[in-house]
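seq as requested:
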Amino acid sequence: MRAQFDFQDQVALVTGASSGIGRGIAEAFGQAGANVIVNYQGDAAGAETTAGAIRAVGRRALVVQADVGDPAAVTRLFEAVDAEFGHIDVLVNNAGISHDGRPLHETPIAAWDKVIRANLNGPFYCAAATAQRMIAAGRGGRIVNITSVHEEACNVPGDGPYQVSKGGLRNLTRALALELSEHGITVNNVAPGMILTPMNRRAQDDPDYLAWAESQVPLRRAGTPSDIANMVLFLCSDAASYCTGGTYLVDGGWMLTWPHV
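struct tokens:
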């Protein structure tokens, strides 16, 4: 079920929007009336699929390839936004990657840098560019960062860089919220639990694992990209105008059971 919000003629940038949670968020903004910048890094076909769904409901979609962990690429991304739309109302920092399963003490510096660059540096670069434009426009705005329950629950051995990056993104959210509040810009983060996306391939491919994993969730089901999109749209709507600096769990209650005792 998708909640009803009105973003008519607003401009929303969603990073990592070629599949999964990012696609769900981008398509939800289009259905709510927004024009959407569909950012992707490697999956051009997936990004075009997302854009096609947005155009099918009568909204504009701009597809822009950019590695958000590369400052020069982020500069080009925002130049494209400026040229096409001239302003930005919403940023959703969704792009992110996981680690390769090695423990932290065996993780090469290059592997550490790859995750931090994508998951923490990228949101910083995009938020800074967005905030500068929002402040200059003087109309306020919304920034939402997609973290994870693992911003707090460091319970997955072999995925340390990911968990560290999401914890850092949580505090980036709070620091930005404090500094941008006077400009009418709210900054929040959404922390998904188990969501059925390509990043969670095992849950999609292994019915036994999915059944076990869902049994660990108080609501007894896995989440979907629409569950995340609904929360993001709420936080970007007028209904959430007094919400900033917060973490919003969308995890079916999983964090109520952590840590297990």
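Residues 70 and 122 are 7 Å apart (CA to CA).
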